[in-house]
Amino acid sequence: MKLEEYSVCLFDIEGTTTPISFVHEILFPYSKDKISDFIFNGKLDPKIIKELITENRQDIAEGFFSAPILGSDHIVNLQVLVSYLQYLIRVDRKSKPLKEIQGSIWKIGYEKGELQSIIFADVPDFFSRLEERKIRIAIYSSGSVEAQKYIFKHSNFGDIGKYISSYFDTNVGGKRESESYLEIARKLGSNPNRILFFTDIKEEADACTLAGSSVFLMSRPGNHRQPAHNYPVLHDFTTLL
Asked: What whole-number distance in Å separates Cα of residue 185 and Cα of residue 191?
């Protein structure tokens, strides 16, 4: 497949533009360490609290978590809320309210200079070349849009967010659902067959392909081994330039 056939390149983050180790060894521990101070000293959006209560009740019903966030007086127990959020981080739950909270915590970390994201060395040049060819760049990740923007703004290669035109999170749908990629195409004003998606997860590739788009499966250092598939594999983006 040739890049010129596409109007949009859609990128996953973890394992595609950014090492998995950065997410799991730096971002997740940072949010876990800071989450207690953030919850006790901040003011959570009631909508986020409501979503967490719903998720918490489901986990209790299924035996995954023992303590409810709500007490008998229907006041949120902040300590239990912190414990529940730390549990969600530990099991790597793709929880929308958790991702919103993590995004807010990481924002503070980036702005204080305590965090700097790691981007694979071939990414900035590839983004620049795509811009030269007038191919739009979009991001689709389970992390909140805010968290995505800070990864590319505060990277080890400086601000490369200048190349990115659109960001999408799971508000458009799950990454393993074909309808999500159709919704992204609609929001981008593009035919799905003009979108090229880069991801490290076969199930995401399957969903995107079902929506009518093309896919490259990334095999970066530290990526998890994927089930058998017929997708073209990339170790980096240099072979596409």
From this structure: 6
Q: Which residues contact 10 (CB under 8 A, 6 or more apart)?
A: 138, 139, 140, 184, 195, 196, 197, 198, 208, 213
For the chain, residues classed under CATH 1.10.720 are: 25-112
CATH number of 25-112: 1.10.720
Whole-number Å distance between alpha carbons of 229 and 224: 14
Model confidence pLDDT, tens digit, residues 21-70: 999 999 999 999 999 999 998 778 888 988 999 999 999 999 999 988 87
Residue 76's nearest CA partner among 98, 38, 46 is 46
What's the pTM value of the predicted model, to 2 decimals? 0.91
Note the helical H segments in 115-201: 123-132, 145-153, 178-188
The CATH-assigned architecture of domain 3-18+118-240 is 3-Layer(aba) Sandwich (3.40)
pLDDT above 90 covers what percent of the chain? Answer: 87
Structural contact between residues 216 and 236, judged by C-beta atoms closer than 8 angstroms: no
Chain-centre distance of CA 57, in angstroms? 25
For tokens 């035109």, the residue is 165
